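tool_call predict_complex ligand=glycinamide ribonucleotide
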Amino acid sequence: MKNIAVFCSGKGTNLQAIIRAVKKGKLNVNLALVISDNKEAYALKRAKKAKIKNIFVDPKQFPLKADFEAKIIEYLEQEKIDLIVLAGFMRILSRDFVTRFKNRIINIHPALLPSFKGAHGIKDAFDYGVKVTGVTVHFVDELMDHGPIILQEALRVREDETLESLEARIHKIEHKLYPEAIRLFCEGKLKIEARKVKIIA
Ligand code: GAR
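tool_result ok
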């Protein structure tokens, strides 16, 4: 069984969806570790409640990003982590970190990449007036919101859509898509060829 670490900075609803998928037997992984760069992240409480090892790594204690990441790597190695799942982790990982875990870090983004990268994907797409938006799960490379795409799902923006309704609809898709992407990875069903990810049946 693969050992998974989930990195979160905030609410952790995606973490919760992953925990739920494991509990329901839909996802056969060992949720070994939750790491947060934010002491107040509700995700840490969710991990604690689910009895998952959870650690706050304080970026303020490590003025150098390399030292901050070295601390995280210590925990990842202790738990023999196979896959790092970024779930609302609002920090860019260094090139060295990404290289070290090449093709073993995935991220979820609440828009159809390569559109609306960054920290406010849902609002940016809504304010732009798009008629279609969605969710992307992708491998992480050294550029932000850029690596090979694993899964995407689109939704049509309704005429009476509000930012709140759109957020709710996007999150619902995320909570289905992320466990599915993790399952595909863990079952060895993803084959990366340059920018393209083939899903092996
Ligand atoms: C999610 O919507 C995720 O797509 C987004 O942060 C949210 C975290 O929510 N990530 C990004 O915007 C990354 N660029 P959660 O803490 O409730 O899972």
